[in-house]
Every structure is written in C-alpha cells, then in structure tokens.
Design a protein that fits this description.
- This protein is of the alpha+beta class.
- The protein has three helices and ten strands, in the order ββαββββββαββα.
- It has a four-stranded mixed β-sheet with strand order 2-6-7-3, covered by helices on one side. The chain has a three-stranded mixed β-sheet with strand order 1-5-4, with no helix packed on it. The protein has a three-stranded antiparallel β-sheet with strand order 8-10-9, with no helix packed on it.
Length: about 230
Amino acid sequence: MEIIEKVLGNRADAAWAARLRDASVDWLELSQWDAQKNRLRKETENGRSMAVALERGESLRDGDVLEWDENARSAVVCRIRLCPVMAVDLTGLAAFGVERAVSSAVRLGHALGNQHWPAVVKNGVVYVPMTADECRTLKDCAVSSFAEKSEKLKYKQKFEQADKNAKIWKDRFEKLNKDYEELKQKAQPFLDAIEIASEKVWAFINAILARGKELYEHKHPARNRGQDMEI
C-alpha cells in the first residue's frame, strides 16, 4: 500500500499539464464525499492500493497529482466524480426583512446539520452535494409534492368552475323570478277580472236554475197524497 501525505501539484497547472500530456496516468477516482476527507483508502483504476493521509483541514481536489515517476513517465492523478447537488437560492430573502431572512437561514442550517450534509455558500446560493439515494429521495419528494399540488390545483379549478356555474344559474334564476314578478304584476288585473267574472257566471247560472225550478213548480204544482184516488 502506498501512502500519500502531500499533493505534488494539479494538472490544471501549466507545468503539470505539459508533463502529463504524454504520460501514462492511473486515476484515483473519488466521490465528492470521499474527496472531502483528509484520510482515506482507495484503489486506483489499475488496482494500486493508495492510502491518503493529508494534514488536518486539507482535502483532495480534482486533478491533484498524487504520485509522479519521471523515468517511467507515469502518474497517479485524483479524479473527483461529481454527484448531484441541491441548490437552495437565498437571494430573495432580503426582500422579506432581516428577521425572516435570519429565521429562514437558521432553520435551513439546522436541517442541513441534522443530516450532517456539508454545504457551500456562493453568491447567496447554498450548494449541498447529494448521494444517489438522497437525490432519488429528494426527487421522489419533489414529484410527490408536485403531484399533490397538481391535484389540489385541479380541485381548485373544479371548485372555481362550479362556483362560476352556480353564480350563472343564480343570475338566471333571479332574472327569471324578476320577469315572473313583472309579468304577474301586469297580468294581475286580468286575473282579478277572471276571478270576478267567474263569480258572476256562477251567480248567473244559479239564477237561471232557480228561475227554471220556479216555472216548473208553477206548471206542475205538487198534489196531496190520495188526491187522485176515487171515492
């Protein structure tokens, strides 16, 4: 096992870029999480076992040269595999006042601390590296939240449409009721006339029937019982 206690340089430097151009490079690939550690054990792509033991506070960067053999023109170079990053934009908090901005920042820091998530703040944006599982969980939560919001929006739209329809029917009913009252008011004299005429018609019919009965009784007077019997 080879022990690496310091970094020789970085391939981003012009001098090292020239050296590595025609060299044989064996890559020590690290995750973004492993790269933040100052002590770790890992195998290179060619199977060489490497033990990194840096000073406290130091960490590996992408392109760091860990070993160089001038005669063999070979090197071991660190390659950091970037993982998904969650970005939390806090630039808009200033518009909500100091108290709310501080409260939101503290709650975010508390949440990140509970998960032991490292974070980098740059230009008002908090960048949090995520593992593959955490990324999937976050995506599932986002999709679930989106679906819930979509469902709520759908029902909200249905409610608004139903409320709109109810107002339309209410307006129609009120208009019909108003038209009915106006028509009833206009027709009231005719209704009263029909009611009065009906009473007079019945009075006229009853008068005729009574007169007919009187004429009949006058022409056919009632006889006493036994009046037509011979003595």
